[in-house]
Specification:
The mean pLDDT is 88. The protein has 140 residues and is mainly α. Helix 1 packs antiparallel against helix 5. The protein is 65% helix and 0% strand. It has one domain: Nucleotidyltransferases  domain 2 (Four Helix Bundle (Hemerythrin (Met), subunit A)), CATH 1.20.120.330. It has five helices and no strands.
Length: 140
């Protein structure tokens, strides 16, 4: 039976982000598919930021712009602003340049990517601790 999710439920955003993060961390550990890992990590960070914003009453906006989402946190006086800023800045550009032709590809930096994944995981845990997280319902 399919699982029912709700885009206005921060727990559902975190459920998906946590699942995606497990896969990215395995790829990073094996140093496989660098560009995929970078762009997927940006997507995971996006989900964590949206979960935190929705938790604070933000009306969901369909955007992939990490800098804009980080700015929304800053505008709300979030204590996470300083932590997310470096991740937003470093992953925002790579999110698109590593996914589409027409841009210069950066050299692989697995050490930095691993550190970014670790920090994203810590942020996910902080946000998760602020809400009751349960898996989406089975739709029964």
């Amino acid at each position: 039976m399919p699982r029912k999710t709700d885009s206005n439920n921060p727990a559902d955003w975190l459920f998906i982000a946590e699942s995606d993060l497990e896969g990215v961390r395995l790829l990073i550990e094996r140093q496989l598919s660098y560009s995929l890992c970078v762009s997927k990590l940006a997507e995971i960070l996006e989900k964590v930021l949206k979960a935190e914003l929705i938790r604070t009453g933000w009306f969901l906006e369909k955007t992939h712009d990490l800098l804009k989402l980080g700015g929304e946190l800053r505008a709300r006086g979030s204590d996470l602003t300083d932590r997310v800023r470096p991740l937003c800045e470093s992953l925002a550009e790579r999110y698109f340049t590593d996914r589409y032709p027409g841009f210069d590809l950066q050299d692989e930096d697995w050490v930095t990517l691993r550190a970014q994944a670790d920090e994203t995981a810590r942020l996910l845990e902080v946000v998760k601790g602020r809400i009751a997280v349960s898996p989406p319902s089975s739709g029964t």
